[in-house]
Amino acid sequence: xxxxxxxxxxxxxxxxxxxxxxxxxxxxxxxxxxxxxxxxxxxxxxxxxxxxxxxxxxxxxxxxxxxxxxxxxxxxxxxxxxxxxxxxxxxxxxxxxxxxxxxxxxxxxxxxxxxxxxxxxxxxxxxxxxxxxxxxxxxxxxxxxxxxxxxxxxxxxxxxxxxxxxxxxxxxxxxxxxxxxxxxxxxxxxxxxxxxxxxxxxxxxxxxxxxxxxxxxxxxxxxxxxxxxxxxxxxxxxxxxxxxxxxxxxxxxxxxxxxxxxxxxxxxxxxxxxxxxxxxxxxxxxxxxxxxxxxxxxxxxxxxxxxxxxxxxxxxxxxxxxxxxxxxxxxxxxxxxxxxxxxxxxxxxxxxxxxxxxxxxxxxxxxxxxxxxxxxxxxxxxxxxxxxxxxxxxxxxxxxxxxxxxxxxxxxxxxxxxxxxxxxxxxxxxxxxxxxxxxxxxxxxxxxxxxxxxxxxxxx
Length: 460
Description:
It is a single chain. With 460 residues, the chain is α/β, with parallel strands linked by helices. It has helices at residues 19-51, 71-75, 91-94, 96-105, 133-149, 254-265, 270-283, 322-335, 349-362, 385-388, 394-408, 421-433, 450-457; strands at 117-120, 160-163, 209-211, 225-227, 293-298, 341-346, 367-370, 413-416, 440-443. The chain is built from 13 helices and 9 strands. It is globular, with a radius of gyration of 27 Å.
């Protein structure tokens, strides 16, 4: 008789799980699943609570919305969860090059014998300085690298960059602080002007002070207090990484150093942070996907030949027609059919409105996102902002402009002209600190310098 095969043949006596073992396994799976669900729900509640406008008190107080006042809650939010709220890289939290700049700029003892300074002077006729926000920031970035490397001689020790206390043209009538850059932005350093050697009261023969007659003038590196010339220009540092201890330029990317120095400059005061936050909540949809968004920062007005506005800079290029912007938007759509949104901003109201009409006619399915409430003062110059738009203050113009910058940080594809430091800065910051990956730029008004190359290609 043929023997019947055992159903357990080939298994060890202990390989078949018992009913009690199976029950334990089911309980473990259920417990893990519940834990995951609870975690997801809690995180969603926290995010919704923080991002919802309904969360604020009836008085409109948002003072809690800072890492200092609510550090544990704040830490639960990732950068992506700030899609329609204020986010900017913090030196303390972000670290890296930005953190290193903060460390060097904020010594524990500003009166130490080893402390050396680089004082950023205003122009002699600073009230008529027509530079805009990013032109000032670009100068600060270059002066910062001059100070940190002591003009390409880091072995002599770094300097601390500090600005003077003369009038900042865009801060006239400031209601939130002095009429200096500190009306809007955090100080460049914790050191004070009282810590530096004052050239107006010092002995003319003093060896502690040197005032540069031109940006690239050579000087004795042992001088304690160095003053910039009163030119709007600056010295170009050859090896911007030499002060970090990470080696030299040939080993690292120029764009990361540039972006970090700009991010350090653009650290806004709490009142301005709140203002930008409110505007972002009003303008940016919660469902915006940066990976599917085009940014079109149209820079015209005083950038174009033929511009004539008292107190504003004269034009410097033949501005591309708006149809050229549309053409590149269509090329991006052909490249990536998943694109859903386009962020359109401009200081030039008429150009912005005309482009919006073109978009509505040519690409009606594309969701257009605007900077609602933008002053659109009709110039990027900064000396007479309060005179360009009736009923608007300098503070409103600055808040509008910086809101546009923050909005474009949430785009992936850009159509711009790099002849403008404004639009180039947007592209540089989006590449390094933006919300989208793989940033691509169409430059329809190319400029031939390092900064434009960084905006256009991400490298010099």
